[in-house]
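Thread amino acids onto this structure.
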């Protein structure tokens, strides 16, 4: 039954134009060519090139023995809030305040605000 559905879907789709077929074949050839060029020898050669580049540019490197580097800085440098997040935070704050005010008066809220 699944094969029948796939066949039905193909009937509903328009045929590829000759231009699209040529573009698909060209991309397919390019991908096959790239896959053929990725060999263990080519990877080894590129690794050697990278090591040579690093050695050639070693004089630009800075020794950081006195400085501690970490990926997580415990929120010392936080990102700025986007306008969207800030407006959502304000809306939540207002809703929480309204709910708190209603609960202090022992009144049930009639409607709830929906964030989109």
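Threaded sequence (116 positions):
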């Amino acid at each position: 039954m699944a094969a029948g559905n796939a066949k039905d879907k193909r009937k509903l789709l328009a045929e590829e134009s000759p231009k699209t077929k040529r573009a698909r074949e060209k991309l397919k050839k390019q991908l096959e060519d790239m896959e053929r060029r990725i060999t263990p020898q080519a990877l080894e050669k590129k690794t050697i090139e990278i090591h040579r580049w690093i050695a050639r540019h070693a004089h630009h490197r800075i020794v950081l023995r006195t400085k501690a580097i970490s990926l997580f800085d415990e929120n010392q440098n936080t990102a700025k809030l986007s306008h969207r997040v800030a407006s959502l935070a304000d809306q939540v704050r207002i809703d929480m305040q309204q709910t708190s005010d209603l609960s202090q008066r022992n009144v049930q809220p009639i409607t709830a605000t929906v964030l989109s």
